[in-house]
Amino acid sequence: MPPPPIPTPRFFSLVLTGTALLWAMASGSIADRSARGVTMRLGLYLFNPLLTELFLLFLLLVGFWMLERISSRSGSMSSILTLPLRKGWSREWALGAAAGWGMILAATLPVLLSGNLHGRMALASNSWVLIPLGLATLAVSTLAQEVVFRGYPFRRLVDAVGPTWASLLLSLLFALVLVRQNPPRHIGTAMLVEIAFGLVLSMAYLRTHGLWLSWGLHFAYWAVAGLVLGLPMAGHTEFTSVMATFATGPLWLGGGSFGVDGARFTLLVMAAGFAVVFRLTRWYAWEYTHAPIVAGGYEVTVAPPPAHAAMEKQAAAAPPPLVQILPATPQGRSVEDEPLS
User: Fold this and answer.
1) CB contact set of 290 (below 8 Å; sequence gap of 6+)
2) Rounded mean pLDDT of 40-61?
3) With pLDDT > 70 as the criterion, what percentage of the chain qualifies?
4) CA pair distance 248, 230, nearest whole angstrom
5) Is the predicted pLDDT of residue 331 greater than 60, yes or no?
6) How remote is the C-alpha of 248 from its chain's centroid?
7) Mean per-residue pLDDT for 298-311?
8) Residues 160, 10: Cα–Cα separation, whole Å
9) Which residue in 12, 18, 144, 317 is a FRET match for 222, CA 20 to 30 A apart?
10) Structural domain boundaries of the chain?
11) Are the C-beta atoms of 214 and 198 separated by less than 8 Å?
């Protein structure tokens, strides 16, 4: 039996996590400048957001792959991307997308029913180009975020501090990044909602050991909010939407300019979403997270008792008895004829 793999020391895992996160920060700056230079040179200004996210994803994968190769002398690009092409991967993504769609509708429906959601159709002549471009940009952007916060750095942090603390710490960092870009007035509520959202996504990864479900959930949650309903996505409003929508009323319900992610009511939606995703991933948790049972110890051969060994030896030495089959003889009458009188 081969020896078990040597675990990575905790301190070394922490160093890898910190290095990966620093590389992610540097990659964002490099990707932004590179995309701006390409689009300005070619005049493709509409494609600047998409190119930025594509460059960012490429830099993240290359950097994380090099870290893994340096630290363990192994690893592949597919393992860094954490999108295993296993049976049912498309269903995993669709299941996550359905969960994200349901969560954003649950957060928005009370605003609509209370009469505080106002909107109109906002289709223009170039919407047929801008909306698919926005969907592609959002798909790559959410995948890049998942690779950073639920991918290689997350796995290394799990090795160092365990899954619970790793989920909490990177969900906190995830919330800080989102809120820092567009800080709202009610920053405390927005932080709590984004931390809860990060915990839902982290749990989706931990239950499936893949990013299909968490990526689908993240993408659908933002796509429905920003591109279908026209609501701010953590304060972002730069995407072209089918509708132009704005919410009024109390901040605890609509979240104001930050979107529903800044509403206290959304905390209840995140708690319900956590329970739903946990329930939906029962089969995946059994299939992909339970380690196979491996026999341990050493092979032991117990000698049989001496009496049993002697009987086996005697039975092997004695020749088998011969059975002789005699020919059958016809049977005559056993009763004599009666004498004549």
Assistant:
1) none
2) 95
3) 86
4) 14
5) no
6) 35
7) 69
8) 4
9) 18
10) 87-288
11) no
pLDDT digits (tens, 9 = 90+) for 144-190: 999 999 999 999 999 999 999 999 999 999 999 999 988 888 899 99
Give the dihedral of Cα atoms 261, 262, 263, 269; nearest 10 deg.
Answer: 20
Q: What is the 3-state secondary structure (H, E, C) of the chain?
A: CCCCCCCCCHHHHHHHHHHHHHHHHHHHHHHHHHHHHHHHHHCCHHHHHHHHHHHHHHHHHHHHHHHHHHHHCCCCHHHHHCCCCCCCHHHHHHHHHHHHHHHHHHHHHHHHHCCCEEEEECCCCCHHHHHHHHHHHHHHHHHHHHHHHCCHHHHHHHHHHCHHHHHHHHHHHHHHHHHHHCCCCCHHHHHHHHHHHHHHHHHHHHHHCCCHHHHHHHHHHHHHHHHHCCCCECCECCCCCCEEEEECCCHHHHCHHHCHHHCCHHHHHHHHHHHHHHHHCHHHHHHHCCCCCCCCCCCCCCCCCHHHHHHHHHHHHCCCCCCCCCCCCCCCCCCCCCCCC
Using the structure block, give the residue that is written with the tokens 């708690």. Answer: 271
The two three-digit tokens of residue 278, written as one number: 């946990």
What's the pTM? 0.83
C-alpha–C-alpha distance, residues 256 and 185, integer Å: 9
Tokens standing for 206? 């931990």
- Residues 280 and 277: their CA atoms lie apart, in Å, by 5
Return the residue matching tokens 């689009």: 39
* Cα 317 from chain centre: 66
Amino acid type, 32: D
The rounded distance, in Å, linking the Cα atoms of 250 and 56 is: 37
